[in-house]
Amino acid sequence: MEIVEYKISRYGDNPRHGAVLKDGRQWLCTKDNIVDYVLDGIIKKNKKYIRNIQDVELAGLDVMLSQIIPLKYTQFQNDKEYISNLSLDDYHEFFLHIMALGQLIEIGLDKNNAVYVGTICCVHDKSFMVDLIDTNANYDEKARIPFDKVRYIKLDTDYLNSLEIFIKNRALYDKRNLDINY
Description:
By secondary structure, the protein is α+β, with helices and mostly antiparallel strands. It contains six helices and ten strands. It has a ten-stranded antiparallel sheet with strand order 5-1-2-3-4-10-6-7-8-9. The radius of gyration is 18 Å and the shape is globular. The N and C termini lie far apart (about 55 Å).
């Protein structure tokens, strides 16, 4: 398993790390190493925005990281099944695959001042539509996003999974609050 360090253009100077799940012509898919030895979610990076990608072990950056992450990764066998049919060489196929999952995703665009969270609801020739959620986890509006403006997409993170659980169980929470208030 290859552990890489990389930077995303105009997303700060701090390098990011990940365990490579699949590498394609247009996208690099990794298990995201957010801090220390924590793996959280899958991040797909648009390769046109990746700078300075290098193997962690070869670069001598963190010997423990290159030893611990592969050991931890054996816990995530479902990721291998998830990415087996994922096209990383064609934008259109890539976004169709993510739309078919029906999961919440986080989208980082060409500017790092905001990220979007929502579900892909439609894929066009050069863009896709996202049903966005607001800060209260309500579906609020739709946005059209050109393929080439996407720097990264995250899914299956603890944050996104928690939002999905909340959204799916909102009626239960609302009922509990009504019962308590009366």
